[in-house]
Amino acid sequence: MSGAESPATLRFRRYLINCPSLSNKGRGKKICMTWTLQASDDPTRPRAVGWDEYRAWLMQEWKSLLASGGGEKPVQEFLEAHPSLLPGATDDVGPGGHHGATLYSVISQPELQGLGRRRYPDFMWVRRDTAAIRPICIEIEDPAKRWFNPGNQTPTAELTEALDQLVEWKVWFSKPENQSIFLKTYAPDFTSRALEPQYVLIYGRDAEFRLGESLHADPAYMRAKRNFMHRDDEHFYTFDSLKPIVEAKDYGTLTRSVQGWNLKALPPTFTTHPLMRELFEAVSSPEAALANVPLIDDARRTYVAARWAHWRMQLQQNRAGQLISTAMGGEGE
């Protein structure tokens, strides 16, 4: 392969510089994992859906879902299937986090030990950089809920309850014992790093703040009032403001149970590459999630499952101390 390096190659070079150390079993040394990157050059291999095609399809489906007024549950399920719509996958929320999302995934309804299930975040990204671990805790509500009462311009009871949810998370993260539990659960290789959570509320529709559609006499004033309501480390979005970001095109959705990690969803743009070491280690097979991926055919599903198995085998060989020389190039599949 010639010419400029691909984005995947550049990311991989950064990984080799900053990769976590692994114990070289039996020798007491520290080594850096390397991989054999065997990108297929067969032009007939089943490909992932292109970003532009996926984005156009996704936005149409998202707008149709919001127009249907089906409530919070179908929105939760849709965002699980298409996590690139969620804020926080990159540095668009809060500072730093340029190493990307842990496990190349968003976590759906992650447990915060001691809080009841109804008080868990709906979603959580765990981003990191060399300075800190940055959980992005996300609360969503029924899109039909209003921010303000039309009569007296005060926050609705539903909004007050949603904002209280963010406060509960802040209190939880303020306790050192909870910080320790969180790092051991969601960032076990980085327990010495600072923990700097951010809090996202996705609530309501843009129409509440648009002249001609709003029930408020002065919707521009109400928009300004909303924008002044967020407190430290809080970020507000309406459902209409969500847009997919290409940097998250390979990100999936995970859930966690006592048995470990479960892969719940992958997008049709998903491609495998060696930067996904943590995900391959955590999830043995993507087949259950692949069965529900839209826009791809069975040939693509089979191909992704095979490449997943390939990378897991490479991981196992490296864990056994069989270092594999790294061949750069391609997009990593």
What does this entry look like structurally?
This protein is of the alpha/beta class and 333 residues long. It has a domain at 51-247. 33% of the residues lie in helices and 15% in strands. It has nine helices and ten strands. It has helices at 7-18, 51-68, 72-81, 157-174, 176-186, 219-227, 277-282, 287-290, 298-319, and strands at 21-24, 29-32, 105-108, 123-128, 132-140, 194-195, 198-202, 234-237, 252-257, 260-265. Strands 3, 4, 5, 6, 7, 8, 9 and 10 form an eight-stranded mixed β-sheet that branches. Strands 1-2 form a two-stranded antiparallel ribbon. The longest helix has 22 residues, at 298-319. The two termini are 15 Å apart. 33% of the residues are buried.
Brief characterization of the structure:
With 333 residues, the chain is α/β, with parallel strands linked by helices. It has helices at residues 7-18, 51-68, 72-81, 157-174, 176-186, 219-227, 277-282, 287-290, 298-319; strands at 21-24, 29-32, 105-108, 123-128, 132-140, 194-195, 198-202, 234-237, 252-257, 260-265. The chain has nine helices and ten strands.
Arithmetic mean of pLDDT: 87
- Share in helix: 25-40%
Order of helices and strands: HEEHHEEEHHEEHEEEHHH
Give the DSSP E fraction (strand runs of 2 or more residues). 15-25%
Q: Tell me how many strands there are.
A: 10
First and last CA, distance:
15 Å
The main pleated sheet reads as: 8 strands, mixed
What is the count of helical runs?
9
How are the elements arranged and paired?
Elements: H1 7-18, E1 21-24, E2 29-32, H2 51-68, H3 72-81, E3 105-108, E4 123-128, E5 132-140, H4 157-174, H5 176-186, E6 194-195, E7 198-202, H6 219-227, E8 234-237, E9 252-257, E10 260-265, H7 277-282, H8 287-290, H9 298-319
Parallel strand pairs: 3-9, 5-6, 5-7, 7-8
Antiparallel strand pairs: 1-2, 3-4, 4-5, 9-10
